[in-house]
Amino acid sequence: MSKTADSSATGNYRVNHLARGRTLRGLGLATCLALLLGLPLLVNEYQQFVVNTMVIYALIAVGFNVVLGYLGQLAFANAAFFGVGAYATGLTMVHLALPLPLALLAAGAAGTVAGIAVALPALRVQGHYLAIFTLAFGELMRWVYVHADAVTFGPSGFNVPRPAALGLLGSPERGKYYLFLAVAIIAIGATVRLLRSRFGRAFVAVRNNERAAASLGVSVARAKIIAFGWSGFLVGVAGGLYALLNGRVTPDSFGLAQLLLNFAIVMIGGLGSVLGSILGAILLTGAPELLRNFAGIEEIVFSLLLIGVLFFMPKGIGGLIAARIPALREPLHRE
Amino acid sequence: MLEVRSITVRFAGLTAVSDLSFDVGEGEILAIMGPNGAGKTSAFNAITGFARPAAGEVLFDGRSITGLKPDAIAALGIRRTFQNNGILREMSVLENVLMGLELSTASSMAGVVFGLPSSVRAEQEAVAAAYAQLASLGVSALAERPAGSLSFGQQRLVEICRALVSGARLIMLDEPAVGLSPMERLQLGEVLRDLAARGIAIVLVEHVQDLVMAVSDRVLVLNYGKKIAEAAPEEVRRNKLVLEAYLGTA
Amino acid sequence: MLAQLAISGIVVGSVYALVALGMTILFRATSIVNFGHGEFFMLGAFAIYVLKQGFGWSYPVAIAIAFGLLFLVGVLVERVLIRPLGSAPFLSFAMMTVAFSFLFKGLTRFFYGRDVSMLPPLLNGEPLDFGSVVLFPQDFLVIAGAGATMTIFFLFFEYTQVGKIVQAASQAPRGAALVGINVPAFHSAMWGVAALTGAVAALLIAPSTLVYPDMGGQMLVHAFAAMTLGGFGSLGGAVLGGLSLGIIENLMGGYVSSSLVEISAYLVIMLVLLVRPQGVFGEWRTSRV
Ligand SMILES: Nc1ncnc2c1ncn2[C@@H]1O[C@H](COP(=O)(O)OP(=O)(O)OP(=O)(O)O)[C@@H](O)[C@H]1O
Ligand SMILES: [Mg+2]
After folding, report:
1. Is ligand 1 within 6 A of the CB of residue B38?
2. TM spans, by residue (chain C) (predicted)?
């Protein structure tokens, strides 16, 4: 039973191995950060706008992945979280004249509340029931945006005031970029820490085997509420940024087309991979801009992509990375 | 420590366990035997909150735990393994064992999200404890492997490891020796005796006779949901009812 | 007013019931929840529209060909998209149905733009006045058509040998294979039948609504609401749920606010799943350990 010699040897190997991986990752992260900070010098105003959109979608995809990939629950409420966040930021700025940081916090709070609301049925029902519930929830929210027009300005939406501070760095798009980047880095960093802790392990344990998880003391209900709440928070904040990005909020930005795009990004990135989600967002976000002019093309392209991923790359980009570049392998990645 | 008072478990017309009572004390190993379908797993489920007994009561440390949720029961210091499919297949062995520490890891959500030192330390300590537990069962080499890729016997060991690491006071094992080699079975027996010596109570459902005879203090035999014998191992072996139940002439 | 609302509710409700029944049969046979089912309905409507209005064929011919086409679409979906997934997890199957639903919607939009088209009624004639209730001939046709289709299903599933085997196959595919059912072919056929029920529903209701690429999403939600209300997976529940949903919707619209008609289905889904997930008419089926 006592194989202490053997185990301390593996332990040492592991420590060295880990340390090497950590320095590599640290260097990589530093390079990425430098590139990201310098990026505005290389792009024009329109390209900067597209990049800003990518940052928002990276945040959305990571948030969606928490529920879909880590917790393993099929939920269609992502576009609803996104919309709730956008409306929360936009409306608190318009009606209450909240300063930007508070308006973004409002988006996060609204998203969290929506996330927890959706988690409540997830405590009793799962699988297709949850999918159907969240589908109804998303459409109900859109009905509210359209019909509560005294507050939401109805079907045509409203303009969001542009905070003066965003213009300080030369161009408004550049100002937005640094704000979005800072928010995304902080939020995604926090998510990575959450996923690597006992909380993230509980999500994956619930996905794998609810009974076994419960037998180990995991409160399945609590894990679901935390995952959905956190997912709602991230996507809600992304919605708040989206309100700033376009300077306008309209109900039809948060419908089924939005949901399809979110699905495609997360699936291409890979379920249960944060890095994959970010790369998926970068890959797919430019596309709607290019495809917008042809009726139906957007849907055709994204659905074919989704089908292709399901057939040929079920683990997505994250799976490819995990297989090829061990240093970038994420813990809890789906095998 | 554990007192089971006349529990009955029913599934749509079928009585899986009827009027079952037994006690397990500190440092004691109770084996439950019985033919297939006798109700052993159902009794486990009723005790650990996965099935609601139709009648009867389960006490732990004198306190009723009947009707509590599985995770609440686990939190009291009771751990079980499953007859099949108890492993978290998509997680590594290390992560599986870490799940056993879910309740004793003191990191808070805010602490984790903001990277506070206390939570970071709690997480690191959990990893160290998990490694130590793996090492004590001689399986630390498997730590990074996905648990789903292990052999059936190894998965069992991981499940046991996961139950042990939690510092549980009562451990309930549902057919842990299935798929273990004779060597591994011996090792398992040693581990169980070792735990009992440390005061941990163990309930063991097992068909493998040599293991049961070697480790258990008492053997309880179920047939058609009813207790037909409860005695020391050598006595049970000679019990007429038990022989009949196993030979099918009852 | 109450009687009129209730009867109109039964008319639309019988269409919801039919679509919900199609989804339920597919679910029972393959345990797949088809999020693309609304698009079978939409494609059915477009097939009839194109053959009737585009090619100028008579209704009977257009209908026969459209039904055949939709059966084929269902079979093809199963063969090309579903079967190759093999034993993938639930999430992959659900995602695949989401994907093909958007594919069909996108294709239809690409070819037929964003405009809205109309189908002439199947039956013309004066509205019939029954005192407090006024009904159009088309309404009778809807009830009769949906009723007949559903009756055929029930007779098939409950009273024929094949139907019973089919039910058994959905419970235990391996057992079914043992008694000599060709399970893959059976699944293909069930997808075909499911798509076909979508086309029948489209035929019945499209003449009184409109034909447009987004029409499937609404129908999907209504079918889900019907299934949820009646107890997911129950054939009788799907029918009862569909009829009740039609009535609820009309009463909400008539007595509360017309803007509530659009969201009755959403509210029904959310309420039922929160309060009584097994459905108002359903029993809770516990899964085995
Ligand atoms: N969830 C359930 N629903 C319906 N019947 C069940 C359920 N679980 C167990 N049973 C039935 O209860 C009886 C007892 O089953 P149980 O699994 O407790 O037996 P066991 O002694 O553990 O058998 P084995 O040695 O095969 O593991 C069996 O007849 C079984 O079919
Ligand atoms: Mg058993």
Report:
1. yes
2. 6-27, 32-51, 57-77, 89-112, 132-157, 178-207, 219-243, 255-275
Complex ipTM value: 0.90
Give the domain CATH number at B117: 3.40.50.300
How many CB pairs below 8 Å do chains A and C form together?
Answer: 125
Query: What is the arithmetic mean of pLDDT over A248-269?
Result: 90
The verdict on a CB contact (< 8 Å) between C100 and A307 is yes
CB-CB neighbors (< 8 A) of C262 in chain A: 143
- Site from A62, A207, A216 to mutate, B interface, most B CB atoms within 10 angstroms: A216
Is B14 close to ligand 1, i.e. is its CB under 6 Å away? yes
Q: What are the residue ranges spanned by the domains of chain A? A: 50-262
Per-residue pLDDT of B209-233, as tens digits, reads 888 888 999 999 999 999 988 988 8
**Which has the minimum average pLDDT: A11-20, A22-31, A108-117, A177-186?**
A11-20
Question: Which residue segment(s) compose the domain that B43 sits in?
Answer: 2-247
Residues 6+ apart with CB under 8 A from C99: A303, A304, A306, A307, A310, C81
Q: Give how many domains chain B has, as a whole number.
A: 1
C-alpha of residue B41 to centroid of ligand 2, in Å: 4
How many CB pairs lie under 8 A apart between chains A and B? Answer: 132
Return the closest-CA partner of residue A78 out of A218, A239, A283, A302.
A239
* pTM, two decimal places: 0.90
- Contact call for residues A274 and A316 (beta carbons, < 8 A): no
Residues with C-beta atoms within 5 A of ion ligand 2: B 40-41, 83
Nearest to residue B34, comparing CAs of B204, B182, B234?
A: B204
C289 touching chain B per CB within 8 A: yes
